[in-house]
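2024-03-11 09:14:02 DEBUG pipeline.ingest accepted 1 chain
2024-03-11 09:14:02 DEBUG pipeline.ingest length=482
2024-03-11 09:14:03 DEBUG pipeline.predict start
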Amino acid sequence: MYYLLSSPNPESRFIEIECTFLNIETEYLEIQLPAWRPGRYELQHFAKNIQRFGVFNNKGKPLTFRKITKDRWRVQTESATEIIVRYNYHANTQNAGSSYVSTEFWYINPVNLCVYADEFLNERCTLQLAIPDTYQIACGLQQTTPKTLSAQDYYELVDSPLIASETLQHRTYQVQDTMFYVWMQGNIKPNWEQIITDFQKFSAAQIAVMGSFPEPEYHFLNLILPTPYYHGVEHRHSTMVVLGPDDEGDDLYLDLLGVSSHELFHAWNIIRIRPKELLPYDFTKENYFSTCFVAEGVTTYYGDLFLRRSGVFNNEGYFRELQAYMKRHFENSRYAQLSLVESSWDLWLDGYEKGIPQRKVSVYHKGALAALILDLTIRKMHRHKRSLDDVMYTLWQRFGIPFVGYTLEDYQEIVEEIAGEALPWYWNDCILSNIPLENHLNNTLSWVGLQMITLADGTVQLQELENEDAFLEREKWLNGNI
């Protein structure tokens, strides 16, 4: 598939798309636009942003088509072996999963606006951008010419956001065999020395645990806004991050560190270590799965922990982040009715909305606390010689590297293999039921000299206990001594 993107009038926020299909041998071709995007498990109906749509043969003759679903068109090929689809897309949203065009820069998530046909999903894709000669392109895809990108198939194409502008800033660093790129778009003067030092530290810490990195290159794409914002999305060889405001100083940098470490761990956990139900992605409908508490909860736990292990955060900085998601869970959904497994499944229903009171839990916040309980439980059982690190490393070796999907049962079996015994209380109380986590959390935290307390007004605080032995265990945990 060949795509040409242009925007003759970027102030209109419309992108003109031309998609060419070659070597067609069927009487009709069904054209699909994704209904959702990887990294956010809800239907987003991108077709609502298409204003006009037409299909032509290679001589420019219009072909007959009709819409058969909200985002699928059936085209009568009339013996044409080459079909060109021309349409436009309103790109006017600046979050980490959308697209935006202006006179200053382009920000494109191909999954929003690139159509496909089932027969061509596994064929090479070419993406050409009609951008000014002075623009740079920040993207994880191979750049074959200054304005052309190449993907091995449609799945890679739509997992590769890009920023194109004249004002892009970037620096690089290397860890083992992987080259990392940090890109910045916005009104910001980055402290590159600090950024590269800190990013190299947490990247090296993650790779040390997982043993190898999935890609030879990785790109941190950062769009910095003048208004408050915090959003990141994981991709195959990049992450897209939108942050603001651009004058926030230290707080903005802390946000950058937190979201970047989190998204980098996704390069293993969900991009490659992927639930079986998501292999391959079906972009036409919901892809229900019950293990988002592993994909997002474990990643949330490790995102902050790796900042502490690598020395980017001190204890105070890490405990501040730990307390933050304790507060978000216990103050908002301590007595929620749905379990982590049920809330994972219901992401497709209302997982990203506040919803009615005490119905669901956050797979991010409660999932991270469940991961903490599991990590400290295994560490205590084996005096730090085994941990959740071993679980994730084993998942990477058995499911990530061969790229075969795992199930909830696979995750449970690996956890119990590393633990050396069954953990029925953990699965029942922390994962499969709505029993509040407080008792299990405090039982495990006390071993490392910490305690969560609930004040009379319902707010939550994390406290350190005076216990020398527990302090030593805490330092082993926080430093990753296994």
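2024-03-11 09:14:41 DEBUG pipeline.report The chain has three domains: 2-165, 168-267, 289-482.
2024-03-11 09:14:41 DEBUG pipeline.predict end
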